[in-house]
């Protein structure tokens, strides 16, 4: 099987995922994913689609991650892995969709407005 590539995004994070046959090794920016994502929760988020399909030891995954923070990156990677698994086998889509992995989270940071300290916060009003 040739490498299948997919894209996952979340907030400012972009994950380019390359999936190929292998033994279940996940490499993120040249490091093992457990080394890259220190928290066990984030490691679980990354492997969720593989755990649902019992495909943890079938594929080797190489990832280029950039932008955002670690939480956004982990969720972008989850979406990228999900899309790659759907490209491998269309039957996987029903299971992954029922678990909510196929939906791209559209929430982005709202821009700061001029004359305000943040996006929605206003400077304190002074009557006198």
Report what the structure shows.
This protein has 128 residues and is α+β, with helices and mostly antiparallel strands. The chain has one domain (4-98): Ribosomal Protein S5, domain 2 (2-Layer Sandwich). Helix content is 34%, strand content 23%. It has four helices and five strands; from the N terminus they run ββββααβαα. The protein has helices spanning 33-36, 40-53, 70-88, 92-98, and strands at residues 4-10, 13-21, 26-28, 31-32, 59-66. A five-stranded mixed beta sheet has the order 1-2-5-3-4. β3 (26-28) and β4 (31-32) form a beta hairpin. The longest helix is centred in the middle third of the chain and has 19 residues, at 70-88. The termini are far apart. The relative contact order is 0.22. The mean pLDDT is 93.
- Low-confidence region ranges: none
Spatially, the strands of the biggest sheet line up as 1-2-5-3-4
Which outline best applies? elongated
End-to-end Cα distance: 73 Å
State the CATH architecture: 2-Layer Sandwich
The proportion of residues forming helix, as a percent range, comes to 25-40%
Order of helices and strands: EEEEHHEHH
Instruction: Figure out the total of helices.
Output: 4
Largest sheet: 5 strands, mixed
Rg computed from alpha carbons, rounded to a whole number of angstroms: 18 Å
Number of strands: 5
Pairing-aware structural class of the strands and helices? alpha+beta
Q: What is the count of structural domains?
A: 1
The CATH topology is what? Ribosomal Protein S5, domain 2
CATH C-level category: Alpha Beta
- Mean pLDDT rating: 93
Roughly what fraction of the amino acids lie in strands?
A: 15-25%
């Amino acid at each position: 099987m040739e490498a299948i590539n997919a894209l996952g995004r979340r907030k400012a994070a972009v994950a380019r995922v390359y999936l190929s046959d292998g033994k279940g090794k996940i490499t993120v920016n040249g490091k093992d994913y457990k080394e890259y994502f220190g928290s066990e929760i984030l490691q679980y988020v990354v492997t969720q689609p593989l755990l649902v399909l019992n495909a943890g030891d079938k594929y080797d995954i190489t990832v280029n991650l950039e932008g955002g923070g670690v939480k956004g990156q982990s969720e972008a990677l989850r979406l990228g892995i999900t899309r790659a698994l759907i490209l491998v086998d269309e039957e996987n889509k029903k299971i992954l969709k029922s678990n909510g992995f196929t939906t791209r989270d559209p929430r982005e940071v709202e821009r700061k407005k001029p004359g305000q300290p943040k996006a929605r916060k206003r400077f304190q009003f002074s009557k006198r």
